[in-house]
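User: Can you write out an input/output pair for a complex, sequences first and structure second?

Assistant: Here is one pair. Inputs:
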Amino acid sequence: MAASPDRARKTTAKKPASAMDRDELLDAYGHMLLIRRFEEKAGQLYGMGLIAGFCHLYIGQEAVVIGMQHCLKDGDEVITSYRDHGHMLATGMDPKGVMAELTGRSGGYSRGKGGSMHMFSKEKGFFGGHGIVGAQVSLGTGIAFSNWYRQNDSVCLTYYGEGASNQGQVYESYNLASLMKLPVVFIIENNRYAMGTSVERATASTDLSHNGQPWGMPSLAVDGMDVLAVKAAGELAVAHCRAGKGPFLLEMKTYRYRGHSMSDPAKYRTREEVQKMRAEHDCLDSAKKKLEELGVSEAELKTLDDNIKARVQAAAEFAQASPEPDPAELYTDVLVEG
Amino acid sequence: MTDILMPALSPTMTEGTLAKWLKKVGDEVKSGDVIAEIETDKATMEVEAVDEGTLTEILVAEGTEGVAVNAVIARLNGGSEAAQPAPAPKAEAPAPAAPARPQKTAATAREPVEKEWGATKTMTVREALREAMVAEMRADKDVFLMGEEVAQYQGAYKISQGMLDEFGPRRVIDTPITEHGFTGMAVGAAMNGLKPILEFMTFNFAMQAIDQIINSAAKTLYMSGGQMGASIVFRGPNGAAARVGAQHSQCFASWYAHCPGLKVVAPWSAADAKGLLRAAIRDPNPVIFLENEILYGHSFEVPEDEDFILPIGKAKVEREGSDVTIISFSIMVDTALKAAEVLAEQGISAEVINLRTIRPLDIETIAASVKKTSRVVSLEEGWPFAGIGAEIIAVVTEHCFDWLDAPPARVAGVDVPMPYAANLEKLALPQPDWVVDAVKKLF
């Protein structure tokens, strides 16, 4: 079960205070909805054979990346694993360019040469998109290192799953970041299953928020299904890093509704478990309820929903209309020439 | 009566050694016959007769050194008055009417690839590497050095001695023993625009981090459609040192050279080390810089010019020759040069190519040499299977097949993990006589 807010407990950091006003929550809701609708469309295009290879959908986990993004300022950086479409949309990357990369077209962020797992945007501070489980954690530590080296106050959000949290280089990164006081927020998106292996079957110590303790890293377990809780915890973590106090670890207790990738036998969990999570902990449902309490009208939400559907539809159309990369692209970008 | 004169091999040659007479007094000589061999410190060439007649007199005995150009060395009777044997280096032999294969190319046909840098000073490879890093770090504040023991300890092999004092702890950074983690960290820093020099205490330890080198450093530029890459140098000693056993004695040249997105450099001399490391640091791509522990203490001449730099991707002909090309890199260039000395004593003129860069491979220099010599031996310390020698031979076969007089040969380390025992270790690593034997089998 994902944690409810009262289970988000203090480890070495102070308990965060919740904070988003009406407009900010509406913005967050809109971005979560954009990810949800985008991913549903990506799943649909996959089924039509327009997207191939790996396609790891983020549906269910939207609150994590949107809550954290609300803690950032210009110049901050984001890096994540292969379940990355949501992170790209959160940083403000264009859904058209993301979807066209999924279809392997020249209009994609990597001009069709990266695919679902490998997109980047220097402009938006998005450093990928990495297919080797755990590798992005050392890379993110290095991005934070570059902030330390330049003595600016930028912070790097480094996302990975609870499966990756067992990799050796993740612990090496905890050590390096703590030793050098690097401005990195380690964000474990604990969606409970590494492909089909539950956290209980993979990790001897299942309270992952404890993982930073040997290095004295402050950490929090957070209800990752609640965008307000995520933002509140994220504010603490980011402020800690920005102040030059070193890394911070957040364990986001979340859940993915879809399979690991597109071909998932779904034998490792029950349908009831998935349905219960959707019914009781969905991030969009709870945010919508709070918006209604804050006086946002049904009509306003409907307009928002319609706008998002139209954006996603436009992205899907662009992704199908964009031409395949020129064959000459095969040989470009291997090395920087000159 | 026709005088045969000592020919000049080049415009600057003033004298040479009359190495061997191939004809004796009384022999009939026809136009085109090779009558003698002469040598300089650079090459051996054959003297061909231009006119017909009988050799009546030999005026300079074979083995005579310091024979002046244009001295009369023999006389021929029966020839025309104008008879004068032309200097005829092998490479310029007249083409047969219907050549069975392409002409060998002239020794002088290649353009010089290296700029003249002027005055030199003697320094060790260790000092040269340090000077390169210091110069580049002074010039560019985004360049920094990171690795195990590079700062307070002054470098496990003293390469970075004194650098902490000059640049401080933010630019000369000691890491814990955590190759996978710090390599990923360095690559991440490079993705964000810094230019790390990452020192591995030895390249053996980089195997812990090879995922970050290949999957992150080498591939990101391509995967991002050119948006984001990594300007980073991975450097450290590679290959066998001495008596350090199997896990510390391995050549990784072919591992890294296999991968698109990387450049792979392997210097031999101190000039190579300095000039190529500066180029590697400035290169916007990830560069694997394979050093050699034994060479660290070796001294060479290095240009004093403070702008001295060498291009990545250009090999150097360390010794010119006409009969066989020996292609090598790093410490094996020493072995190749020793073998060439021995071969010269036996009348075989070997050209020695120091590759300097493994990837991109300087096919132009290799092909020009092999087209001249028609024989090739690759020499490396690493294992033979799928090694650099295999690639060199493939390239030579593709580019020079019709020029070859013998199958290409390779000399490599023995196909076993490195043994510890002194005698066994020596048996596992290429020695000059292995190269001499390999060359002689081609004739």
